[in-house]
Amino acid sequence: MLKLNILNVDRFLEEVNACKGAVKMRCSDGRAVDINGDLPLQEELRVRHRRNKNFLPLVLDVPGRADYMRIVSYYAGDC
User: For a tag site, which of 11, 24, 27, 60 has the least CB within 10 Å?
Assistant: First the structure.
């Protein structure tokens, strides 16, 4: 599980969409929703990011090792 604070949502979503497997976002009700390639959900994240003054807290489950490392590497460079 990763707890992230996304500053550059467009670049983050590019990395998510480059992943080969699921990138599951934890919702407040406990559900896990795969955001990889889900364009309507990604647009909703962009709206939340703008409303929250370019800040988007997320909790992710990334089961694939390579995909996990991709997201962590992105995040380390974005902070």
Answer: 27
